Amino acid sequence: MLFQPPVFETIFRTPVEHRLVIRGSRSRGAPLDGVRWYHDEFDAAGALVARYETYDETDAAGQARCGWRRYDAAGRLAARHEVAMRWSALVALKQSRRNAEIALQRAGIPSSSAPLSRRVLAA
């Protein structure tokens, strides 16, 4: 079966009047297997509202995970959510891509409001 990424607008709860633009993606092979996507969200006036980093991967410790991070226009981490399984496993568990997207919507607010590295945003 061909890999089908999530509908990012659903996960991020992007308002219909906003525009979500993909800035790029990066993939890597085994043993650290995964893919990352980078998106910018613009409001109806064209102003940058947020930047997102979404991932589906097996990390250096061999743990499966997928999730996302939302950064505000100033580059500060505003929200994040992660599940301990790959996207395809989440789709299988939730029995549909739509249900998996809804499961990824839950956002956790970071414990610190300190700005994170802009390296992620520049990718």
Structure description:
The chain has helices at residues 8-12, 87-94, 97-103, 119-122, and strands spanning 19-28, 34-42, 48-58, 64-72, 77-83. It is globular, with a radius of gyration of 14 Å. A hairpin with a 4-residue loop joins strand 4 (64-72) and strand 5. It has 123 residues and is α+β, with helices and mostly antiparallel strands. Helix 2 crosses helix 3. The protein has one domain. The protein has a five-stranded antiparallel beta sheet. Helix content is 20%, strand content 37%. The protein contains four helices and five strands, in the order H-E-E-E-E-E-H-H-H.
Q: How are the SSEs placed, and which strands pair?
A:
Blueprint: H1 8-12, E1 19-28, E2 34-42, E3 48-58, E4 64-72, E5 77-83, H2 87-94, H3 97-103, H4 119-122
Helix pairs in contact: 2-3
Which series of helices and strands comes N to C?
HEEEEEHHH
Strand arrangement within the widest β-sheet reads 1-2-3-4-5
Quickly count the helices: 4
Structural class: alpha+beta
Please report the distance between the alpha carbons of the first and last residues. 29 Å
Number of domains: 1
Give the % helix.
10-25%
Strand content: 35-45%
Largest sheet: 5 strands, antiparallel
Low-confidence stretches: 113-123
Gyration radius, in Å: 14 Å
| Mean pLDDT across all amino acids | 83
Total strand segments? 5
Rough outline: globular
Descriptive terms for the model:
123 residues, alpha+beta
